[in-house]
Amino acid sequence: MDAIGGVADESRGAEASAEGHINGTPLPTMVNGWPKFPSVRERYFTTYTTGNHQCVHVHSNGLLVLGVSPDHPSMQPPNRVTAVKFRSHDGKNLLNTAVSGKKKAGAVFLSERDMVCTIDISDGSEITMYACVRGSVIEINERLLAQPELLSDSPQSDGYLCVMLPKLQEKRAIGKACIEFDHTVLITPSGNEKRRQEGKQVRSKGAKRARSDGAQQCWNYVNKGECRYGDACRFAHGEQPPEQPPASAELTSGAGQATEAAAVATEQTSKSKSERAQADQPSAGVSALPVLAAGGNNGEGDA
Fold first, then answer.
1. Nearest partner of 155 among 9, 296, 49, 267, judged by Cα
2. Contact of 80 with 152, CB cutoff 8 Å
3. Average of pLDDT values for 229-256?
4. Which of 6, 134, 169, 295 sits a CA distance of 20 to 30 A from 92?
5. How many other C-beta atoms can be found within 10 angstroms of the C-beta atom of residue 111?
6. What mean pLDDT value characterizes the chain?
7. Are 130 and 113 in contact (CB under 8 A)?
8. What is the pLDDT of residue 121?
9. CA–CA gap between residue 96 and residue 64 (Å, rounded)
């Protein structure tokens, strides 16, 4: 029995070593005689790498962890990451994200083409990181603001970018979404690149902030006197609009004018009615003749 049990154990061990896992759990590998156990990412996450060297780690519960591939060509030595700047130039401000509740109220929803952050490299280049998939950003890695080198030193653990929550109906299609990102967003240009291919004038970042001559005016600034975007607004502000009279005064003046016009119209109507009445009324002599004639005939008949 022991021999049979030993043979069974050896066969199970051979099958496990051949497959590299037991019941879905990866086996440790031997490195210099010491076992190296799989990391949490290798045990519970499925990783998809996009064409722009971004990584989308999908947890078994559906959460997404967005990161950068260790093989990113711009982050190889001697290059190093100098700064990470999360999106904060518009309403999708990731730095002020405050999520609360079971439904993650306050999370910022991003589409696959939306920018998450930019990474500054020591050689002077800049890398744009996209969301790659549709989902709500529920957490950003604020440690990167003070320690941007984590992106290159620990890209698979502490150097993640953000945590995203996809929609319920899209949790099982993350791999397909990453493939579509490679074939649509990365191939189909947008912004200035699209304008270059179409032969249109390229818009610079400074042109959006310094439009004064012939530029479209900001509706909020012109009508309300304020704009929440400030200097980052894409429309021109110009000078402060003049103060408008209070609504009560406008209503009062309008009501006075309407009353005066109504009085004039009533007076004209009364005059026209009196004139028509005088024109239609016959003279006294004409009206008496038929009456006298009728009275005389009646008298003679009675007699």
1. 49
2. yes
3. 62
4. 169
5. 12
6. 75
7. yes
8. 95
9. 20
d(CA 274, CA 259): 23
What is the Cβ-side half-sphere exposure of residue 89, based on CA atoms within 13 angstroms? 15
Higher pLDDT, 298 or 174: 174
* pLDDT tens digits, 133-154: 999 999 999 999 999 999 989 9
Domains, in order of start, for the chain? 41-193 (2.40.50.100), 210-240 (no CATH)
Alpha-carbon distance values, 130 to 117, 127, 161, 296 (Å): 7, 10, 10, 113
Q: Where are the beta strands (DSSP E) in the chain?
A: 21-22, 25-26, 29-31, 34-36, 45-49, 54-59, 64-68, 81-86, 108-110, 115-121, 126-130, 135-140, 162-165
Burial class (CB in 10 A: 0-12, 13-18, 19+), 86: buried
Q: Which residues pair with 30 in a beta bridge?
A: 35
- Give the tens place of pLDDT for each residue, 174-229: 888 888 888 777 777 667 767 777 777 777 655 544 444 456 778 888 888 888 88
Report the run of H or E that residue 150 belongs to, with start and end: helix 150-153
Smallest CA-to-CA distance from 57 within 151, 174, 169, 183 is with: 174
Any idea what DSSP says for residue 86?
Answer: E
The length of the chain, given as a count of residues: 303
